[in-house]
Amino acid sequence: MAQEITLFDLPSKPPNRSWSYNPWKTRIVLNYKSIPYKTHWIEFPDIAPHFHSLGVPPNAQGTPYTVPTIHIPPSPSQPKGEYIVDSKAIAIALEAKYPDPPLHLDAPQLARVEELWGQAVKALMGVFVPDVMRTLLTDRNKEYMKDRIDLKTVVGGDEAWEGAKPVLEAIGLLLKEKGGPFVLGETVSYADFVLVSGMHWLKKSGGSTFERFVQIEPACGTLYDASKQWLERDDH
């Protein structure tokens, strides 16, 4: 049996399921490529102490330690294995090690998808982040995050949706450009996983955010439905 990669991911309230956007980008790649892996659930307050204790080098920029992180098992060239941090860096490493089926990381649409998704999240933070805090976060994670997220100046409700609508329509145009259901038409790519992971995050948060999202732009719902097989494994 092949040695398993370890995926470090955030737990949810019981029943425990993967829910967070960035770890889902890695999980969906592992599921899509059928790479053997196991999940190590780790809460926000434990992330930095855990990886520091293992001697994992901190990120050069941004948060020193975060999830997703993966551990690739030891090999002759890496006797202690290898820790890789950040979903994009992980995707690049997994693509090099497990090239089939391909992620098409060189697709020019990927940068545009990442840009648009970032804009969508920024526009809708006041809509779905309260649901995430209430529905998904464990008590320890909620306590950790409550002073790190400031929603006082964030727009919510219909005003937020009005601001997000042009971004969602732009995502829809990108999905329709090559006929769908995927960004590259009939070809699956990492650009799809950026969007699907994000939509799954919205769906897991509860409320009506996901439903309204795909109602505004049905092409997003079509993409999500076409990708459901890679969302099935979410609890181990």
Summarize the structure.
It is built from nine helices and four strands. With 236 residues, the chain is an alpha+beta fold.
Describe what this molecule looks like in 3D:
Helix content is 50%, strand content 8%. With 236 residues, the protein is an alpha+beta fold. It has a four-stranded mixed sheet with strand order 2-1-3-4, with helices on one face. Helix 1 packs parallel to helix 3, helix 4 (109-135) runs parallel beside helix 7 and helix 7 (190-204) crosses helix 8.
Distance between the termini: 18 Å
Cross-sheet strand order for the largest sheet: 2-1-3-4
Give the helix proportion (percent range): 40-55%
**How much strand?**
5-15%
Helix/strand class:
alpha+beta
Give me the Rg, rounded. 18 Å
Number of helices: 9
Order of helices and strands: EHEHEEHHHHHHH
Q: What is the residue-averaged pLDDT?
A: 95
* Largest sheet: number of strands, sense, barrel closure: 4 strands, mixed
Q: What ranges have pLDDT less than 50 throughout 5 or more consecutive residues?
A: none
Q: Tell how many strands the DSSP assignment holds.
A: 4
Molecular shape: globular
